[in-house]
Amino acid sequence: EEVEKVKASKISVSVQKNNLEFTLESKNRDFNNIIKIAKKAACKDVNILILGESGVGKDILARYIHSISPRKNEIFVPVNCCSFSENLLESELFGYENGAFTGALKCGKKGLFEQAEGGVLFLDEVAEIPQSLQVKLLRALENREIMRLGGTKLIPLNVRIIAATNQDLPAMVK
């Protein structure tokens, strides 16, 4: 119900950056409630899903959460999931080993999960990830480990995931 109220109202948000931290303020009471929830969630080391229409500032909210979290001094790695083809997204997220596919670097490559080690991986437009890749993503979220393409060993993860989408996920599941 609160989300519907925020969707229906025009929101003006003020962002002030100060080095790694910034404040997020709004004259809209409903959005200020979202900011309060974000502050509470930022203190917990849990993964977060941000839902909202295009253009409402989900990426700003994700960066705000990161900036006030215990991981604020660690890396923030944003990735727009709809910017990549399925195969390229898989190799970008999970990395690959030498010889994993034609054109792969001989030394292999760390994926974005590994690059975000200790910090935050922001998956924007997460609903656009193809179903075949969602299985691998779910395993990474549940087990906190990944395997590079062409790899044989599991790599443990210490990464917080903040994901965002403008899609109605419950409707997509039905």
What topology emerges from the helices and strands here?
Elements: H1 2-8, E1 13-18, E2 21-26, H2 29-43, E3 48-51, H3 58-67, E4 76-80, H4 86-94, H5 112-115, E5 120-124, H6 131-143, E6 145-146, E7 155-156, E8 160-165, H7 169-173
Parallel strand pairs: 3-8, 4-5, 5-8
Antiparallel strand pairs: 1-2, 6-7
The whole-angstrom Rg is: 17 Å
**What is the element string, with H for helices and E for strands?**
HEEHEHEHHEHEEEH
- The main sheet orders its strands as 3-8-5-4
Strand content: 15-25%
Major β-sheet annotation: 4 strands, parallel
Percent in helix: 25-40%
Key features of this structure:
174 residues; alpha/beta; four-stranded parallel sheet; 8 strands; 21% strand; globular; disordered N terminus
Q: How is this structure best described in words?
A:
A hairpin with a 2-residue loop joins strand 1 and strand 2 (21-26). This protein has helices at 2-8, 29-43, 58-67, 86-94, 112-115, 131-143, 169-173; strands at residues 13-18, 21-26, 48-51, 76-80, 120-124, 145-146, 155-156, 160-165. The chain is built from seven helices and eight strands; from the N terminus they run αββαβαβααβαβββα. The strands form three sheets. It has a four-stranded parallel β-sheet with strand order 3-8-5-4. The chain is globular and about 55 Å long. The protein is an alpha/beta fold and 174 residues long.
